[in-house]
Amino acid sequence: MTDRSFDRDLRNRDLPVRAVRRRDVLRAGAAFVAASTVSLPALAQHATAPGTNYPNKPIKVLIPFTPGGNTDIIVRLISNMLSERVGQPVLVESKTGGGGMVAILATTQSPADGYALIAGSPGTHVYNLALHQNPAVNPMTDLEHITITGGAPLVLIVNKDLPAANLSEFQALLKREPNRHDFGSAGVGTSAHIAALYLMKKLGTSAQHVPYRGSASVVSDLLAGRVSFTIDTVSTWVERVKAGQGRALMVWQEKRVPAMPDTPSATDVGFPELVATSWTPWSAPKGTPKPIVQFLYEHIDAIMKTETVSNRIKELGSVETPGMSPERTHAYIMAEGERWLPIIRESGAKLE
């Protein structure tokens, strides 16, 4: 029964007693039927995976980061909307340590029933294989990959007083002064660290790595001139660059990004291979039934296409990644491994 018909019932309360009794009985019967008709489809909206009763209890999503970052914001938004769609709580838990390996191990050691998920990063799913001497698991193959929810474009940022107005001048400076300049990252094995290693390799230069515990400290030290450059997400630096607090030399994308339209792309500066994104893969323990994996992908992908999530991703300066099915996600992760693992191994970078 609609709110409007309910209002009419209230207005009709001044009818004679006998008429009220008869009409109320008729209305009550109609209301019961209408309410039953409405409530059944509403319950049916909480879909389950085909051939299963999944989910019938809370789902936990581990993130290997401290709360508050872009990935954390998007994962929590998606999880809240997923909870509404499936009719069960979807709980996000921050579990840091070991460059993400602690969260990976916790996921792989959980039952393969779809109630333990991880929303990670290139570091957790790829880089750790080369950064750990003897990794206990292979995240590329020991997980069931569900989808990828967005990517954060990277940007090369230099201190505003560094005598390098573009990538060519930056390259020349590092060649003139090898290992005299430091670059900061949010930690060993992060996307910023690995991208910087790749950049040094492509430019034929070298610099000293200074790992921090999170990007906030990197930002502070770069602004203070204690490190010369960093590679970070566009969203972290877009407002600071506008304010003249740092200089953006290149975004790690084939094309310029709307948030930094005046910053050259990798193609613009003559290095089209310098394309890198900090992406967010969602995975479940190995052996999770395929209907459950497909069910999660379809719902998360639908959520990604909503105006709410799409707008939030754009606000954060990230890139949308629609249609990343389990098969496409697996293929993408394997390709990223082929690209980045040799670079990391050659650099000698280790987490131990």
Entry keywords:
352 residues, alpha/beta, D-Maltodextrin-Binding Protein, domain 2, 3 domains, nine-stranded mixed beta sheet, globular
Could you explain how this protein is built, in words?
By secondary structure, this protein is of the alpha/beta class. The chain folds into 3 domains: 3-43, no CATH class; 59-151 and 280-347, Bordetella uptake gene, domain 1 (D-Maltodextrin-Binding Protein, domain 2, 3-Layer(aba) Sandwich), CATH 3.40.190; 153-251, Periplasmic binding protein-like II (D-Maltodextrin-Binding Protein, domain 2, 3-Layer(aba) Sandwich), CATH 3.40.190. Helix content is 45%, strand content 17%. The chain has helices at 3-11, 17-44, 70-86, 101-108, 122-131, 167-176, 191-203, 215-223, 234-242, 290-304, 307-315, 326-347; strands at residues 59-63, 90-94, 116-119, 143-159, 182-185, 208-211, 229-233, 246-251, 277-285. Strands 1, 2, 3, 4, 5, 6, 7, 8 and 9 form a 9-stranded mixed sheet that branches. Helix 3 (70-86) crosses helix 10 (290-304). The longest helix is centred in the first third of the chain and has 28 residues, at 17-44. The protein is globular. The model is unreliable at 1-44 (pLDDT under 50).
Classified in CATH, the superfamily of the largest domain is Bordetella uptake gene, domain 1
**SSE sequence, one letter per element:** HHEHEHEHEHEHEHEHEEHHH
Number of domains: 3
Coarse structural class: alpha/beta
Outline: globular
For the termini, the CA-CA separation is 64 Å
Q: Report the mean per-residue pLDDT as an integer.
A: 85
Helix proportion: 40-55%
Q: What is the helix tally?
A: 12
CATH topology-level name of the largest domain: D-Maltodextrin-Binding Protein, domain 2
| Rg, Å, rounded | 26 Å
What is the CATH top level name of the largest domain?
Alpha Beta
Provide the CATH architecture of the largest domain: 3-Layer(aba) Sandwich
Percent strand: 15-25%
Characterize the largest beta sheet: strand count, sense, and whether it forms a barrel: 9 strands, mixed
Low-confidence stretches: 1-44
DSSP strand tally: 9
